[in-house]
Design brief:
Layout: E1 14-19, H1 25-38, E2 44-50, H2 57-61, E3 70-76, H3 82-101, E4 104-109, E5 112-114, H4 119-126, E6 132-136, E7 149-153, H5 154-167, H6 174-185, E8 192-196, H7 210-220, E9 224-226, H8 227-230, H9 246-252, H10 261-275, E10 286-287, H11 290-298, H12 300-303, E11 307-308
Parallel strand pairs: 1-2, 1-4, 2-3, 6-8, 10-11
Antiparallel strand pairs: 4-7, 5-9, 6-7
Helix pairs in contact: 3-5, 9-10
Length: about 325
Amino acid sequence: VVKSRTGHRNMSKTICLMQCHTNSKLKYDVIEHNVDYISEICDHLVITNSLEFDLGMLESRLKRFEDKINIDYKYYVNDHTICAGKLYEYLNDHLDFVVDNFDRCIVTNDSFIVINSLIPFKEFILKNEHDLYGILSSRQVSYHFPDFLRGYSAEGIKILRNYMKKNLHKCSNVKDVIDIIEVNSTYAFDNLESFYPTDLSYKGNLHFDDNILREYVEKLNYPIVKLKYLNRTYYDQDHLPEDFDAFEYRRLHSDLSSLDEISIKRHFLKNGMREGRKYKKGQKSKCPIFLKNILSKEFPQISSQLTFEDKNV
């Protein structure tokens, strides 16, 4: 049984399960930065990382948190099921530990930087009685709660594990994981609510929409900036660049691994250009001006490496 540092069982406890793939210095920096915020809303943190990074480096980076939050480290093979596979492996082995000792479970990953407090999201979870809580809802692909930051009741995390047990084997590539595990798992829940409900008429991804993201961050204190958003550029054309190579574009974006050449080109024209996806190595990253002060304050390690300008400037 997990106990508080005073030795007594706290009847209102939260565990966080964070799935990682620490393949760069940036990822180590991001995880350490985000744990500062996670330690404010959780009593226990489990980091499930890729087996090849079982080198003690992350443990060393996060040692400074040992007086703020209990942290366990688990390592699993990283395959095409990515974060979902690691989460399922952990839940399959430790579900009883989670539901017997914690009243709620926050599930997240290392795909973003936290720029505002997560406490409002935790308070939203505490004052409601749902099995699934999304940081936001989305209509991209179809209506769902994105899985980079979700909350679950004890019953909800059991529902998720059982859903994954029935469906994870159906995933043969990253796109399947997105469609079957991320999007469709939302429909396994009858009792759910999102903290930032998205306008149902909006079918885009706010994380790659300069105007909407700015409104969410500056007016609504939205706490998330995606790492892919910082590794993007701008286009002032509506046609394929002369040096566009469909297969290099596919190699740069793992979620496109199942697409053929025609579909890749269509994706770039329809989605990639709008999302600022790079199509070749060496392209310069360009971020909107409104993020400059935020990142300079919250994450100076990466801010100094970026170019800030507004679109079409």
